[in-house]
Amino acid sequence: MICRLYIEQALQLGSPVTLPPDQGHYLRQVMRLQAGDQVILFNGQGGEYSGHIEQLTKTDSQCIVDAFSEISRELSYELYIVQAACRSEKIESVLQKGTELGAAGFHIVQSERSSLQLTGNRLDKRLNRWRKIIIEAAEQCGRTHIPKLTWNDSLLSLSSSGLSVVLHPHEARDWNKLKPELITASNITLAIGPEGGWSSRDLECLKEKNFQPMSFGSRILRTETAAPALLAAIQAIRND
User: Fold this and answer.
1) 34 C-beta neighbours (distance < 10 Å), count
2) Less packed terminus of the chain by CB within 10 Å, N or C?
3) Residues 169, 222: one domain?
4) Does residue 60 sit in the same domain as residue 111?
5) Where are the alpha helices (DSSP H) in the chain?
6) What is the SS3 assignment for 149?
7) Is 87 helix (H, G, I), strand (E, B) or coil?
8) How does pLDDT run across 8-26, given as a tens digit for each residue?
9) Residue among 145, 173, 147, 169 at smallest CA distance from 80
């Protein structure tokens, strides 16, 4: 398996690419690669580049870009996940699995029952860690774009477009009744509540933002299970 690396810069055929120290360390110490070995590079702008390692030392790591492939492994529609802030390890699971399953972006939002409170430096550090998790998942699964990530201090700051659905077990349309819309929508937003579920105030706010309540089966899913399960189910009915 050829190693894939996300490079946050323009890539040009025949040009050298200097790797950041952490990527050089990864290739050298974890993957045990050396000069001459092949790599795949992508910058999130679409497609991917094949290349080879020119130099790999503790102080200098460079690759040469050899060819471009206009390949896409993205979904044919855009699907965004609104995840209510919860324990960090649960958010990390949603980001990793959601990226692997093709989500276009994630909006982490404070809700009335959110257990995670972040501000200032703590928020910046956590966002950096979450972005790293998204990038690593995209590298591993073959994505050619990097999903977007935003932090929202309240549900009032959310914006919705296309078909917007909030997962809720009560007073909601059944998943089966929404299938025709889920199959044809070009833009879908799924809102998932925290460990304690959405409050009545949260639901009213989401309804004002044009989110439709939807139930998904007879069992109550954990917050970190819901988004990946829905993503997989939607892909199945759309044959994507």
Assistant:
1) 11
2) N
3) yes
4) no
5) 21-25, 88-100, 120-141, 175-184, 200-208, 223-238
6) strand
7) coil
8) 999 999 999 999 999 999 9
9) 147
Query: Is there a single domain that holds both residue 227 and residue 143?
Result: yes
CA distances from 66 to 56, 69, 208 (A): 17, 10, 51
Do the Cβ atoms of 38 and 4 come closer than 8 Å?
no
Q: Compute φ and ψ for 130, nearest 5 degrees.
A: -65, -40
Rounded to two decimals, what is the model's pTM? 0.93
pLDDT averaged over every residue in the chain: 93
Both tokens assigned to 237: 């009915």
Beginning with the edge strand found earlier in the chain, give each strand of the sheet holding 173-174 in spatial order.
148-152, 105-109, 78-84, 187-192, 163-167, 212-215, 173-174
Tell me how far apart the alpha carbons of residues 65 and 181 are, in angstroms, rounded to a whole number.
43
At 170 the pLDDT is: 81
